[in-house]
């Protein structure tokens, strides 16, 4: 999914002396825009260090990108559902193949018994 992003700590220290962390914004106003903030940003008692890394996007990109992300996420969800369906079908095929093997083995055994019974009947005549 597009919302899964890597976050990483950088050596850049904030006002409180902690390392800052680089994240990616996925809000409609700032889709895909990276920023750095204190590791305790928005926590109770945390500090307010926040700074954009990427420059702001133009209004057209702000309009288009959220819709594209929604479409990509929708398609990703469909792919996940289809993979689940494929897995279920593969499980059914495997089960049917195993049943077919058992049936063939049983048929071979029945034919062997039938032929042997014919031989025995023939020899007893
Ligand atoms: Zn801080």
From TrEMBL:
Keywords: Coiled coil, Membrane, Metal-binding, Transmembrane, Transmembrane helix, Zinc, Zinc-finger. It comes from Rehmannia glutinosa (Chinese foxglove). It holds the Pfam family Zn_ribbon_GRF. The chain crosses the membrane at residues 108-124. PROSITE patterns: ZF_GRF (PS51999). Residues 14-56 form the GRF-type domain. Residues 72-106 form a coiled coil. This is GRF-type domain-containing protein. The keyword Cell inner membrane does not apply. The keyword Transmembrane applies.
